[in-house]
């Protein structure tokens, strides 16, 4: 897994956009007590379920790989030459 430039910022953006997507799909928003780990896993599973991202192999389904997948997803959604794409 090759780390993306600005991956941490891309992940933050993915969490914000992903939460808005989940709310539009009928899910309630995350509470302040939800950990980032829970948010990452929930959004990853929602996007896989909706076939917006390819699922990871079962043996590679861990937090770093899920975070990377979310960062890749949002990087593909951003317009060309966006500041986060570096």
From TrEMBL:
<dbReference type="InterPro" id="IPR038316">
    <property type="entry name" value="DUF5062_sf"/>
</dbReference>
<protein>
    <submittedName>
        <fullName>DUF5062 family protein</fullName>
    </submittedName>
</protein>
<dbReference type="Pfam" id="PF16691">
    <property type="entry name" value="DUF5062"/>
</dbReference>
<dbReference type="InterPro" id="IPR032036">
    <property type="entry name" value="DUF5062"/>
</dbReference>
């Amino acid at each position: 897994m090759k780390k993306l430039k600005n991956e941490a910022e891309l992940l933050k953006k993915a969490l914000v956009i992903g939460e808005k997507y989940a709310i539009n799909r009928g899910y309630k928003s995350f509470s302040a007590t939800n950990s980032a780990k829970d948010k990452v896993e929930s959004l990853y599973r929602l996007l896989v379920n909706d076939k917006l991202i390819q699922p990871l192999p079962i043996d590679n389904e861990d937090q770093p790989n899920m975070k990377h997948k979310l960062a890749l997803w949002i990087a593909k959604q951003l317009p060309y030459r966006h500041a986060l794409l570096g």
